[in-house]
Design brief:
The complex is a heterodimer of chains A (about 450) and B (about 350). Chain A contains 20 helices and 4 strands. Chain A is mostly helical and about 450 residues long. Chain A folds into 3 domains: about 55 residues; about 160 residues, no CATH class; about 220 residues, MetI-like (MetI-like fold, Orthogonal Bundle). With about 350 residues, chain B is an alpha/beta fold. Chain B has 2 domains: about 140 residues, D-Maltodextrin-Binding Protein, domain 2 (3-Layer(aba) Sandwich), CATH 3.40.190.10; about 170 residues, Periplasmic binding protein-like II (D-Maltodextrin-Binding Protein, domain 2, 3-Layer(aba) Sandwich), CATH 3.40.190. Chain B has 16 helices and 14 strands. In chain B, strands 1, 2, 3, 4, 8, 9, 10, 11, 13 and 14 form a 10-stranded mixed beta sheet that branches. In chain B, strands 5-12 form a two-stranded parallel ribbon. A two-stranded antiparallel sheet of chain B has the order 6-7. In chain B, a hairpin with a 2-residue loop joins strand 6 and strand 7. Chain B is globular and about 65 Å long. The chains are: A mainly alpha (about 450), B alpha/beta (about 350). At the A-B interface, helix 9, helix 12 and strand 4 of A face helix 1, helix 2, strand 2, helix 11 and helix 15 of B.
Chain lengths: ~450, ~350
């Protein structure tokens, strides 16, 4: 001891390790290293995933727009001349396309931009095919615009968009049948003149899906709505059913072989692959009950079935964690069984139940396999109406949109699929964060 | 108790709206993933320019689509099945059993199947016989039937580059595979004379010889891709030495990454396929449930719009995307206008 206090910098154990001890320590060290490398491997994979998704997907939130003044010629758009919307609908997008084509050509002349000998059709090729439809909707929504010159803000085509984001180069345009280097030169000149601009693209979150001819216009609007509707249904059905059945099984049911069997079945159902629920839903809800295809109600019901076991297991665990003394005390002062459960046990178990429910919802949000069989993996362009009618109308879901976009041939959809993954991940992160906050703030430990 | 009440009312609402919302007002389409992009393009334009809702278009494969079409008549069944191969007798039988008596067969145009390699690789000029000799399990060498010994394209045909054999071909669940088998492998088997040798070996049995022709080697040279063309493209960029099989429209959207090969000396383009010069092409169809016309709003209008010159014609958006328009489109338009159901398969 005196030695040690004299030289505190080098306290030395008196024990000299023998071979066995050294072996034991080496084994411990190896185990630590294996554990550490497992964690590191996981981290590397996560970083790689995030970098590749963010690298590919961030571009989807920014889009190239062409801004030109367009004179809305009443002679071309309203032949009857009485501003009757029904009459004006007879002018199709083709008519509006010609109008934009003319306006674009005129603006290039006015700004002194060299057109590189391109025809006006080639120059119109810089604009998205969505642009005429966009303009038509604007005019039909507000017929008073006729006769005015408005500033029209339309999407540029996906190749031009890719050019400003670095995906398309002059070299690749040379080999690309959808765009030519001359068109890109004109686009660059337009950008220098301030006619083309890359800016934040809200329509990626609000617009519906678009066909392969106009990837620039594709958005997540219908998918987000569809996912939201399904989550509403899942929450409204699985929480009460799940909580009621857990309370019964945990607090009221007699312990016999029937309840044992139910318990085993619930645990098994939680592990059943999601696609199996899709097959069940097709047979039960569509073929037997006659519910419509592609509708969020069917999707919501399937996901409810899928989430129920998870919620029941979480709820039972939460109920079990409430100490028996709470129940005994309530019963002891004369509360009925029901009062003891609803006044004392359930409120104490609530944080655990909510956490389990949110985690179940998060899993349901990311699920696409069961939706494949009920027709929700589809091209849906119209927004579903507000609930309850909207629950019966076709919609898609976020993971489904990711799946569909990865299958499209136009390279611009790669960016949008990654963008959709980012949106999905943000939703999942929010849900998981809420679950953690609930658990941290309200959970009681005994 | 509020929990109980809530769940009861939710179930009640669901039940009420289920019965109220039986009337479907949108057209429902399902089937081939090859026809899917064309159908979405038409659906989008239809929704834009007509007062009907945009049709809902699903993929899932030709066979699955036809099976769904034949599930029965009623608003919870689909109206149109897209198909990249002709309907089969078994489908028609299933339809008849389930009460789907009349279906209309609409041919929208033709699709070419192209062979493409990495843009930075050498040029290829194939014949069906080259593909047969490259991929078949057994080939004829010096008059004898032997297991395929070829290792490079130059072994197959001295005019081709000495690049190792590796091909990504569509898996057997794809309609494209059927065309590949018939128009490339079996064709090559015949022109190279192997068919005769197989027939002689099998004692004149033509079916056995046919099956022998279509048996592909299993030593990793011919790789089935069960996903779609995006997967083939991804695999091609990982293996720049390989040759991939694509649809013409997919190739046209990725001309900056792929170098297309000629087949029998013909470059695949919309024009060469329309003229019938390019050998590997197939018709694309969709099948309409006639009982739903007049029940589902907009169904007939959608079908008519699909085959109109504005859409499926040679100047239309479908041709721009890679569909080879049908020279007999006018007859199809007349057939749709008169709602003529298809006759028995011949």
């Amino acid at each position: 001891m005196t030695d040690a206090s004299l030289n505190p910098a080098a306290p030395k154990s008196l024990l000299t390790a023998d071979a066995r001890t050294r072996n034991r320590r080496a084994a411990e060290m190896r185990f630590r290293m294996i554990g550490l490398s497992a964690v590191l491997l996981g981290l590397v994979a996560l970083v790689f995933l995030m970098v590749s998704i963010l690298g590919n997907g961030v571009g989807a939130f920014r889009q190239t727009f062409v801004e030109i003044p367009v004179m809305l010629d009443p002679a071309a758009l309203d032949k009857s001349g009485n501003r009757d919307v029904e009459q004006m609908k007879k002018v199709t997008t083709v008519g509006y396309g010609k109008l934009i084509e003319k306006a674009l050509g005129a603006e290039l002349v006015a700004r002194n931009i060299d057109t590189q000998g391109l025809t006006s059709k080639d120059i119109m090729g810089l604009m998205s095919k969505e642009a005429p439809a966009d303009l038509r909707n604007q005019v039909l929504a507000n017929p008073d615009l006729l006769g005015q010159t408005i500033t029209f803000n339309g999407f540029a085509t996906s190749r031009v968009d890719g050019f400003f984001k670095g995906r398309v180069t002059m070299d690749s345009a040379l080999r690309d049948s959808n765009i030519s280097p001359e068109q890109l030169t004109v686009a660059q000149a337009m950008a220098d003149a301030g006619l083309i601009e890359v800016k934040f693209n809200l329509s990626f979150l609000t617009a519906p899906d678009a066909s392969e001819l106009r990837p620039e216009a594709a958005g997540l609007g219908v998918a987000i709505l569809g996912s939201a509707y399904m989550m509403l249904i899942v929450l409204a059905l699985s929480l009460p059913i799940g909580v009621a059945s857990s309370i019964y099984l945990e607090e009221l049911a007699p312990k016999n072989k029937w309840t044992d069997m139910i318990e085993v079945n619930i645990a098994n159902l939680a592990a059943v692959p999601a696609i199996v629920y899709g097959i069940l839903a097709l047979a039960l809800f569509i073929n037997f009950a006659g519910l419509p295809q592609s509708a969020p109600i069917v999707g919501g019901l399937v996901l409810t079935l899928m989430t129920l076991p998870t919620i029941i297991i979480a709820t039972r665990a939460a109920l079990k964690a409430v100490p028996p003394s709470i129940r005994d005390a309530a019963l002891g002062v004369g509360a009925s069984r029901m009062q003891a459960i609803f006044h004392h046990v359930l409120p104490l178990a609530m944080p655990g139940i909510l956490t389990g429910t949110i985690l179940g919802l998060a899993r349901a949000l990311g699920e696409s396999a069961p939706l494949l069989l009920i027709g929700m993996v589809a091209f849906v362009k119209d927004y579903p109406a507000a609930p309850p009618e909207g629950l019966m109308q076709p919609a898609t879901a976020l993971p489904v949109q990711v799946y569909q976009w990865t299958q499209r041939s136009d390279p611009a959809f790669v960016e949008r699929a990654s963008g959709a993954i980012i949106v999905l991940l943000v939703f999942l992160l929010i849900m998981n964060a809420v679950a953690i906050i609930l658990r941290r703030r309200f959970e009681r430990r005994w | 108790m509020s929990v109980m009440k809530l769940s009861a009312s939710v179930i009640a609402i669901a039940a009420v709206s289920a019965t109220a919302a039986m009337a479907r007002d949108n057209v429902q389409v399902s089937g081939s993933s090859t026809v899917l992009p064309y159908a979405t393009i038409v659906a989008e334009a239809f929704g834009e320019n007509f007062d009907f809702p945009t049709p809902v278009v699903e993929g899932g494969g030709s066979g699955a689509g036809r099976k769904k079409l034949c599930e029965g008549v009623g608003e919870n069944t689909i109206d149109i099945a897209n198909s990249s191969s002709r309907i089969k007798q078994s489908d028609i039988d299933l339809c008849t059993t389930n009460g789907v008596a009349e279906i209309m067969e609409v041919r929208i145009g033709y699709d070419g199947i192209v062979f493409a390699s990495d843009i930075n690789g050498p040029e290829f000029a194939f014949t069906p016989a080259d593909w047969y000799n490259a991929l078949a399990a057994e080939v004829v060498k010096d008059g004898a039937i032997v297991a395929n010994p070829n290792k490079t394209w130059a072994d197959v045909n001295a005019a081709l580059p000495a690049q190792a054999l590796l091909a990504f071909i569509p898996g057997t669940k794809h309609g494209t595979r059927e065309v590949f088998d018939e128009k490339v492998i079996v064709e090559g088997c015949e022109t190279s004379g192997a068919m005769e040798a197989f027939k002689a070996a099998a004692g004149g049995d033509e079916d056995a010889a046919h099956d022998k022709c279509m048996a592909l080697r299993t030593d990793g040279v011919s790789v089935d891709v069960d996903g779609d063309y995006t997967e083939t493209l991804a695999r091609l960029s990982a293996n720049p030495n390989a040759i991939g099989v694509f649809g013409l429209s997919f190739y046209q959207n990725n001309t900056d990454k792929l170098r297309v090969a000629t087949m029998g000396g013909v470059i695949p383009t919309v024009e060469s396929i329309a003229a019938g010069d390019y050998p590997v092409s197939r018709p694309l169809f969709f099948y309409v449930k006639k009982a739903h016309i007049g029940v589902i709003p907009g169904l007939k209008e959608f079908v008519e719009f699909f085959v109109s010159d504005d859409m499926a014609g040679p100047e239309g958006p479908l041709a721009a995307y890679g569909l080879v328009s049908d020279p007999e489109l006018a007859a199809t338009q007349q057939m749709v206008a008169d709602e003529v159901p298809m006759g028995p398969l011949n």
